[in-house]
Amino acid sequence: MTITERQEQLLKDLSLFQDWTERYEYVIGLGRKLTEMPQASKTEDRLIEGCQSQVWLEAYCEDGGVYYRADSDSQITKGMIALFIHFLDGESPENILTADFAFIEKTGLKEHLAPTRANALNLMALQMKQRALDFAGATD
Prior knowledge:
6 helices
């Protein structure tokens, strides 16, 4: 499944919910399903700066794909980064770098977030692309 197909599936899944609180519950559930990030990985250099909550992000490249692990001290923030991991995990750096993140606007989630949390979505997307860029030359 491509990144775009995963994004479309996520939008379909979210459209099943009648109101934004149900959508947030779904997003929080995605965060709960993330692979546990070891405490030793929650270091200062893995923090995403500018987020209201603490958000740790690490990435590694294996067999040409970029894989992410993340955690947050906030359930909703952890769920939001899980959205990105859901459609980026295992993709090539090139696919991640060219992925269209505008779909996040279509989810309707930003409309009900405080401005600082809405900005966190942009920061997460930027950091995930930056991690992919770090690996872009390594997969050739």
